[in-house]
Amino acid sequence: MKDLNRRDFLKIAGTATATATLAACAGKTGLEIGDTDPAGHHTGAIPTDKMTYRTNPNTGDKVSILGYGMMRLPNKPVAPTKDPSAPPVEEIDQEQVNKLVKYALDHGVNYFDTSPAYCRGYSEESTGIALKASGYDRSKYYIATKLSNFAPQQQTYEESVKIFQNSLKYLQTDYIDYLLLHAVGGGGWENLNQRFLKNGVLDYLMEQRKKGVIRNLGFSFHGDVEVFDYLLANQDTYHWDFVQIQMNYVDWNLANETNPSNVDGRYLYKELERRGIPAVIMEPLLGGRLSKMPDHIVATLKQQRPEDSVASWAFRYAGTKPNVLTVLSGMTYMEHLQDNIRTYSPLVPVSEEECEWLENEIANLYVSYPTIPCNDCKYCMPCPYGLDIPAIFVHYNKCVNKGNVPESQQAENYREARRAFLVGYDRAVPKLRQASHCISCGKCVPHCPQNIRIPQELRRIDDFVEKLKQNTL
């Protein structure tokens, strides 16, 4: 967590409303009523033939710069619960997924990224159903999935091969366009060795590439940079066709500021660029956090381009880098999909001045806010004790952005902030799923790609909540 002078923080947050009002007024210049909604999303027609594409230098694939990340698919309740504190019983809303995938294909999106680990293990199957239902020929889109052999019992050769073969079955295809070793770097060298090297799994995948069952072989990276460097240093052996990295305008130079275990996007991108390995970008929005910015930053962005959504800045930034093949977005709702299609139909690259401004002024302003680097990926779930860990962190971060995390009772807005935090907490997270029920078992920690010290953060939030309740802050 980055330290922040609370007086300065509250002063910044307190001026946000006035600044946002000025930006909104400025935004009316040259715009007709109805051009954008209150969130800044365009409301006009969505182009179907303007999507920007990048060419994979290894295969000639023309890939849409917007890739559909199938990690956060829409859900629907399947059974009512009598206990309001119990986790909701939900399943993927396949009808909505079908609509989203068909809409994406109709508007030029042709890259779909999934994993056996996503959506409680059902993402691949849902993706396969939706792509088949779209009516599009298999040659018209690219499927990316991963070898997600995280559990120790999955790391034998036989079990890992089974995971890959199941991917083919669930995705209803006989080949994978882009296959990734999932989240290498987490757990360091020994984890890589255990999952892919000494068991012969990487040799198997390379053989499948020779046979054409895998068209492109790469890896997604989180964690220990020595693993990243090793895999690239052995490019003559592995011949990586692409690599998936976390990159956005905050992490470009300040990844260590958002999380001490992260590697700057600049380093990762430049190492791929100089080797001619295309980059696939994940977390362009830092798990959505760059679309839910503090009000003060939103106002600053709106002053520059009043008609654009806050999220579009991050997507334009990521797409501007020339060695980027596609930028992934986990689009749960139609409005997210539509906004991103507009941003990339066609892509208007950020200028050198805008790029420098985002990487420095906006990024430094963002990291001054003491948010928790949770990307809401839900890899930490389910918690064996019923906590809704992502919801707790999302609520905390939202309150930080709104200036509702007071440092003490002497804070100017203490009463309003106290009420906003406590009332919002109970609404966002059922009481039996709140931080107070964490026993620090630590089972969530190894699964977090951001390497958050989850039990410690939960204890800190619970301590803050108790002080708010007792008025002892």
Offer a few descriptive terms.
two-stranded antiparallel sheet, eight-stranded parallel β-barrel, 12 strands, about 475 residues, alpha/beta, globular
Strand count, sense and barrel status of the largest sheet are: 8 strands, parallel, barrel
> Order of helices and strands, N to C?
HHEEEEEHEHEHEHHEHHEHHEHHEHHHHH
Number of helices: 18
Report the principal-axis shape: globular
Radius of gyration, taken over Cα atoms and rounded to an integer in Å? 22 Å
What's the oligomerization state?
single chain
Number of strands: 12
Biggest sheet: strands side by side, in what order?
Answer: 3-6-7-8-9-10-11-12
Helix content: 40-55%
Q: Proportion of β residues? A: 5-15%
The whole-number mean of residue pLDDT values reads 88
What separation lies between the terminal Cα atoms? 19 Å
Layout of secondary structure:
Elements: H1 6-14, H2 16-27, E1 53-55, E2 62-64, E3 66-69, E4 75-79, E5 89-92, H3 94-106, E6 111-113, H4 123-133, E7 142-147, H5 157-170, E8 176-184, H6 188-197, H7 201-211, E9 214-221, H8 225-233, H9 235-238, E10 242-246, H10 251-258, H11 265-275, E11 279-282, H12 295-304, H13 310-320, E12 324-329, H14 334-343, H15 352-367, H16 389-401, H17 414-428, H18 454-470
Parallel strand pairs: 3-6, 3-12, 6-7, 7-8, 8-9, 9-10, 10-11, 11-12
Antiparallel strand pairs: 1-2, 4-5
